[in-house]
Amino acid sequence: MNFTDAFVARTRDGSGNARKYLQGLLLNRGRGNCSRFANKVRKSSNQTLQHFITHSPWDERILINKLQKKVSELIGDSVEGSLHIDETGFPKQGNCSVGVQRQYCGRLGKVENCQVGVVLGYVRRDQRILIDGQLYLPEDWTKSNKLRNICKVPKDVRFRTKAQIGFDMILNACKNGVPFGWIGMDCFYGEQPWLRQKLDAEGLVFIADIPRDTRVWLSPPKTGIPERDGKQGRHPIRERVLDGESLPIEVQKIREQIETAQWRQVTVRDTERKELKIDIACLRVYPVENKLPGKELWLIIRKEVGQGTVKYQLSNAAPDSDILKLAKMSCSRYWIERAIEDAKGVASLEDYEARSWRSWHHHIAMSLLAMLAALMDVDRTES
Questions:
Q1: CB of 115 within 8 A of CB of 360?
Q2: pLDDT band for position 382 (50/70/90)?
């Protein structure tokens, strides 16, 4: 697939500078910027690369759409492939870069001055790559004409939560024909019932990390609109769980009640030192959604053998799903975390001079292209 036309505007062909910027990303090691990229690439300069990433009018969405189709050709699999939404922080000094403010930065593990990008990864077995990335623009930014003008935020950009950005990226991947068997997400996204409901309504299988205090019913309680209590007051109009029905229970307490026979030990993959084995239990439950029982889902509880950390997940996988399949889905988030590390190490994802909306998204798209180039190089080496 030729990516040249992604950089062609009405009056200029930027594919030559795109190639040089791409080479700079791949050749760079350690902290980088346009000046350091230019020092690595023949017949290049800081000025031309900075102009390409900041001012050149090419559309990064065209590039990302083409990239997703190429990834589908290379490693796409409708059964073994999976999508994963996540986020990554970019620590920044000052307040002039687009979207920067004090917010949680996963890289640092604390609230810090940073930008946050929501990313979409694709995984098949141990092959992984990021296939989309968009900036989270805090609500204060969307309401400030001054900040928007300084960083040239387009007029049609409105506030979207990180989960909304992630959902939109998933739909775009579907539109581009990216094949996958399930979608994975961490607790931040998985604990939001509306996102799980939206994915289910689209016919998409998810496996979502949830907090240990998430409440569920093991069997559905009876619900209805109760009778009015006495002759005074309004007639009740909202459905609720009827009096006398069982209360929901936290998933961490369910783990304590699981009998030994319900646990299975499964080998999920090889690691550098040994096989990774987990103890896993899978139950059918009804999560609390707006104080009512939601759709029946899988509750997956797992822990690595010899480790103390317990993970809890919900999934809308088919009721007859094999436990080995659920175990593989349960542990697949490991690879998206590796993909983000790859993007920073191999594709210089966090090394940029990008203060404006356009330059940030241009750089991220080029980093994804650099990841694709590395993936294609590995694919050629192994074939």
A1: yes
A2: low
Task: Read off the DSSP letter of residue 232.
Answer: S
In the chain, the amino acid numbered 269 is R
Report whether 367 contacts 32 (CB < 8 A). no
Under 8 Å between Cβ of 280 and 288:
no
In DSSP notation, 310-373 reads EEEEEE---TT--HHHHHHHHTTHHHHHHHHHHHHHTS-TT-----SHHHHHHHHHHHHHHHHH
Can you tell me which residue has the tokens 């999920």? 268
Tokens of 129: 């790559």
If phi over 0 gives left and psi between -120 and 50 gives alpha, with beta otherwise, what is residue 203?
left
Domain ranges (residues) in the chain: 206-224+248-329
pLDDT, one tens digit per residue, over 276-311 is: 899 999 999 999 999 999 999 999 999 988 788 899
Q: At what angle do helices 193-201 and 162-175 cross, to 10 degrees?
A: 10
pLDDT tens string 40-54: 888 888 899 999 999
The answer to whether residue 120 scores a pLDDT higher than 60 is yes
Residue 379 has pLDDT above 60, yes or no: no
Residue 305 structure tokens: 């053998």
Quick check: 377 pLDDT over 90?
A: no
Query: What is the separation, in whole angstroms, between the first and last Cα of the chain?
Result: 18
Q: How far apart are CA 178 and CA 118, in angstroms?
A: 18
- How many CA atoms are closer than 13 Å to the CA of 2, on its beta-carbon side? 4
CA angle 122-125-128, nearest 5°?
35
